[in-house]
Amino acid sequence: MYPYDLALNPFPSSPTPTIKISKIFGGKRHRLALNSIKDCIIDMYSKLNNDIYGDEELFKVITVIQDIGSGKTHLALHMKTLSSIVDKAIISYIDLVQVHPREINNVFSAIVKGFDNAYFNNVLEKLCDYFRRSLAVSPKLVKKALKHGFFDTLNGTSIEDKLKQLLKIKIQPSINHLYDLLSNDFTKSEIQLIVEIIKNGNLDGFVLKSFDDLISTLNNLSSLNLKFFHKLTIFQIDEFDANIQSVDYVKGLINSHIHYSILMLITTPSYYSDISRVSPSLFDRLDKANYKIDLAGSNSYDEINDIVLEYVEQNASKLADTDKTDLSSKIKIIYDEFPDFRNIRSILNILYHSTELSSKKNSLVIDEQSIEDSIKNIYPGLRLRGSIMGIPISDFIKMRKMSIDADYLSLGIKNAVINLIDYVEELGTVKKSEEKMTPEGYLDAIYNDHLGKKIGVTIAIDLDKNKNFDKIVKSTKRNLLIDKLIILTTNITNIKKNDTTFVTVDRWKLVDLLYFSKKYSDNEIKLEDPQKAIMLAKSIQLF
Amino acid sequence: MSDKDDIVNTINSFGLVGIKKTELKKQFMLDNFDALLNELIQEDKLCISKKGTFIFCWGKEYFLEYLLNSDLKFKYLYKDISAVQLKIDNYSDSIFKYVENLESELKEVKNSFNKIENKLNEIKLKSEETDGSSNSLSLDAFKESFNRILHENSTSIGWVELSSVKNEICHICGISENEYYDYVRSVAETFPEKYELSSGGYEGIILRGIVHGFVRCI
Fold first, then answer.
1. What is the phi/psi pair of residue A431, to 5°?
2. Residues of A in contact with B125 (CB under 8 A)
3. Does B200 touch chain A (CB under 8 A)?
């Protein structure tokens, strides 16, 4: 059993999305992007039957330009899983990285393979429907095209049987009669493609001699899709780069205005910038794309959190609000503390492994230790930036969660400073006070430094103290209790006062102090800790 | 004069010879004679000792002389002890001088230390002032300039190559190239909802081992 009562690990484990995974689609910004694409499709689809628009006008360019790992491919593949899109368009997804060398035939082959597996079978079925419809009008021509002769009638082989054989590529029709039959509705080039599909069941062996051939074939394919399915054709070109051949092909595709089609180009800002240098004219065309899909903020916390919850909710019968909050708080901590993981691919990767590890431990939630182990396994070189005590990531996550409570944090830091002073006194770095000094008023700790000066420490991380630095200073000075005052605050302050040191304590130091305090209280100080403790004390300017 | 003074004067008048206790008692027909004598002994003004079969009394100063003249062993022992005493005195003098020197040297060290401390404080203050001047560019100030330059240089989709605006921002903000990327990292990490970084380019910020050389304001 997996955490949150999940029957399986909901997070994808593959480095790039697959059609199956892409069925799950979350994130406000991703949904907005998808809606923009849908708008484009709906707009074009509505114009298909409108004679006002010429064929060349029914061509659109969509660009999706965003960083790697931000969900561009996922968005593209998700389109194939939506009936609202599939009802109106036939999509060919091409991963340009897999096309090498970038020759015309290779590009065409990639486009053809980019359609669904059932695509050519569907074309043949539509052709059969065409034969059936034509049977009433031109029965002789249909029979001749299907080579349905006297012996077939004698054997009891019907036209329907012939069509079934045609679907299974078991008969080769009469080409001449086929041309005659189809010529009323299809062009010669389109019929040529149909013949090729009838012969081989696909277009794998279709040889192109020039770029013009490629353009005209894509036009024909697009036209066939319209005539057979009454659908648009979407060419999704992923990983579009600044390779000179790719740039030329895409430029040609845009210039040729492939009828009834949408060219969707997916690339990164880096490649986009390269294209501007390699081919300013293409860049200019892309810059004027009909739809620029903006995934701005696709790596924001809200977006990532939304996507992660979508994965869980799609696989969980019911996700409790407490579980949602728990999971979101952990995502938030990973997001805040590890800027390296601020993209959906990285977070999903961590969560996949964390879920597996939590499952092995029969944990009801994705626990901190599993997250730490996952991060360690996936990114063995990763360290917490800015931590002096070398705090384990799991402890860090736990303490960051606890330190959200201001009262806990204030008390914890006070105890931590007292413990730290006691410890560095044990190490002999500061002098132990001869008399028992009790902190008074605003003072949280007092000690003697190595010069014998009496130092007072005030923890001013709660709101009231943060606002009352003057009050703290006046109060402690009036009592003449101390020679020097250290004020630890979470505020960034530029206040300068004689014999008063303001130390800004960031969140790493806060957690470092809490972590040290816990170790000290639990008698778990290890051999390497004294040096770290001294560094920590120095970092908050205790000496 | 009191009886005690009379007794002391009488005893001292006998010098080295001393006076028999019985004779003294006869001279001072006092009831508390023995008590007075004991008090004087305790006050260290006279000594009582046997001489032959009689008990004699001496003034304190004369008693030592008597012993030196009458007891040869004591005389030599006294001389030796005196020599030792002299040596000790000499040593203690030199020790005293040494301690005196040490004390003055310590004072000098202390003064030097105070001077060093003062100097260090001065240097610290100066460095703080220097840091203050070099870091006078707050993150907010950098952000403001950064936003403006990004706005002026962005493409239609908003992305800007970090290196392409580096020189301009460094010039405006008076910061080095390294500081520029530190500031960019800081603003991007502090305000993830306002900036987006993208991989690519020849220089930029390293995230997950990848150079992120593009940025845009969201």
1. -80, 140
2. none
3. yes
Measured between beta carbons, the chain A residues lying within 8 angstroms of B197 are 67
Task: Give the chain A residue nearest B194 (alpha carbons).
Answer: A297
- In this structure, the number of other CB atoms found within 10 A of the CB of residue A103 comes to 12
Which has the minimum average pLDDT: A140-149, A162-171, A312-321, A381-390?
Answer: A381-390
Give me the pLDDT at residue A79, please: 96
Cα-Cα-Cα-Cα dihedral of A301, A303, A305, A311, to 10°? -160
Name the closest residue on chain B to residue A336, using Cα atoms: B189
The CA distance from A198 to A205, in Å, is 12
pLDDT in tens, B185-216: 889 888 888 898 999 888 998 887 788 999 99
Task: Say yes or no for a CB contact (<8 Å) between B208 and A340.
Answer: yes
Contacts of B201 in chain A (CB under 8 A): 270, 273
Q: Give the span between the Cα atoms of B47 and B33, in whole angstroms.
A: 15
Residue A253 · residue A219 · CB < 8 Å: no
Amino acid A230 reads H
pLDDT, tens digit (0-9, with 9 covering 90-100), for A439-473: 666 778 888 887 777 888 888 876 555 556 677 77
* Chain B residues closer than 8 Å to A346 by CB: 208
CA distance A100 to A272: 21
Provide the shortest C-alpha distance from residue A283 to chain B (in Å).
11
**Chain B residue with minimum CA distance to A345:** B208
Report the alpha-carbon distance of residue A137 to residue A131 in Å, rounded: 10
State ipTM.
0.70
Q: Name the residue ranges covered by the structural domains of chain A.
A: 3-12+302-377, 21-116+202-293, 121-200, 406-539
Q: Which residues of B touch A285 (CB under 8 A)?
A: none
- The answer, yes or no, to whether residue A37 has pLDDT greater than 90, is yes
Class of the A3-12+302-377 domain? mainly alpha
pTM of the predicted structure, to 2 decimals:
0.69
Of A521, A542, A528, the residue nearest A389 (C-alpha): A528
List the CATH code of the domain at A21-116+202-293.
Answer: 3.40.50.300
Best residue in B186, B207, B210 for a mutation probing chain A (most A CBs within 10 Å):
B207
Residue A196's closest CA among A108, A258, A80, A93? A108
pLDDT in tens, A40-83: 999 999 988 777 776 667 899 999 999 988 899 999 999 999 99
Cross-chain residue pair A273–B214, CB shorter than 8 Å: yes
pLDDT tops 70 at residue A406: yes
CA dihedral B22, B24, B29, B33 (to 10 degrees): -90
What's residue A360's pLDDT? Answer: 93
| C-beta atoms of A272 and B157 within 8 A | yes
Q: Which fold would CATH assign to domain A406-539?
A: Trna Endonuclease; Chain: A, domain 1 (3.40.1350)
Task: Give me the total of CB pairs closer than 8 Å, taking one residue from chain A and one from chain B.
Answer: 72
Cis amide leading into A12 (omega within 30): no
pLDDT band at A178 (very low <50, low <70, confident <90, very high): very high
Nearest residue to A388 via CA among A531, A542, A543: A531
